Amino acid sequence: MKIIFFCVVNLLCASVVHAGDLPDYLQNAPCEEFSNFKIFTKQDGQRIVEVLSNQIYIQARLTTHEDQTLVYLIQPDDLGLGGMQLHWDDFSTEHPVMALEKRNESQYAVTWYGFWTVSRNGYMHQELNGLDDAYASKETGRHDLYRCEF
Asked: Dihedral through CA 51, CA 53, CA 54, CA 55, nearest 10?
């Protein structure tokens, strides 16, 4: 029993350490360009995901296993009119909203899942309100986030 507990604690601690390795600021366009989808860290250490500029910002919890980081909704952080119309109390905090895969030191591939709706037992808002193509790289077709330091 002690060995299993030790392994579980070590696995969880390793996940937290790796999630902390994620850069403080990632966006879906090269750093010198405007971006409407970001992951950033507030001064208090809280991770924020800008899902839709001026509409949906969420507080996020990150867990990392090997080369993949899963991002989970904690709660809304700041909402515009569009974000206020969503049923946040029906969205799960146990299902990831997206996954990040490190491509190199400055680039991460993002897979957006959407928000898991408990009442429907499935993901909703999988296409980011129809703006999904805005997040795809023109060169690769992938959805990439770039590490930026300001």
From this structure: -40
Distance between CA atoms of residues 115 and 52, nearest Å: 13
Kindly report, residue by residue over 77-106, the tens digit of the pLDDT. 999 998 999 999 999 999 999 999 988 888
Report CA dihedral (21, 101, 107, 63) to the nearest 10 degrees. -30
Where in the chain are the domains?
A: 2-147
CA distance 127 to 98: 12
Helix (H) or strand (E) holding 69: strand 68-79
**Residue ranges of the alpha helices (H) in the chain?**
2-20, 81-84
